[in-house]
């Protein structure tokens, strides 16, 4: 994946997808894309394939509060409900679509309310709570595998960074991010829960952090030295041959 982000031939898409269109079908990742909300119909299609094959596969579409307003998302939810597809629609509501607050673009109080119009359950979960998210999605996945159809899960969480590198975030209050980091940092809350339950202590967290940092560093170093795609690779991996 790191090689793909660096545009290298060894990447999962041969360096042609980059960060915006990255995909890894061997891992079940059908791909990100630059069209807002466009993952929902892809997930519905994958769920239909899983249903026709009789597999236990469940497709999951992720989109933000901005993407939740796209027509393609509504169409995919409607079709998934009609056909009782094993599909999850996960709306990551961090309160902002680029620089637009959800209060200016989402008419309903909770995105999950929209599920009723499509005849599926709508669930709201605290996205800053790892364990709550794990439980809620586990229930939705099991429901889908039992043949009971799709679920809309609204994950309410915090956004600490801007939409892009260098985003000054002048559309937010001066202390908003600071206050969120102090009260709603999912990593800090995860550590607190693990410490309280006696699952992991500070030394174990430090070791894990070090191991993960090393994995990332190794991946970056390898990606930097991997070969670039050649001109001869330009027209490979396409569905139409241009002559």
TrEMBL record:
Protein name (database record): Acetoin:2,6-dichlorophenolindophenol oxidoreductase subunit alpha
Molecular function in Gene Ontology: pyruvate dehydrogenase (acetyl-transferring) activity
Superkingdom of origin: Bacteria
Gene Ontology biological process terms, A to Z: pyruvate decarboxylation to acetyl-CoA
Lineage of producing organism: Bacteria, Pseudomonadati, Pseudomonadota, Gammaproteobacteria, Pseudomonadales
CDD domains: TPP_E1_PDC_ADC_BCADC
Cofactor requirements of the protein: thiamine diphosphate
Pfam annotation, one family: E1_dh
InterPro entries found in the cross-reference section: DH_E1, PDH_E1_Alpha_Subunit, THDP-binding
The entry's keywords: Oxidoreductase, Thiamine pyrophosphate
The species this protein was found in: Pseudomonas fluorescens
Enzyme nomenclature, EC number: 1.1.1.-
Gene that specifies this protein: acoA
Domain Dehydrogenase E1 component intervals: 1-231
Enzyme class: oxidoreductase
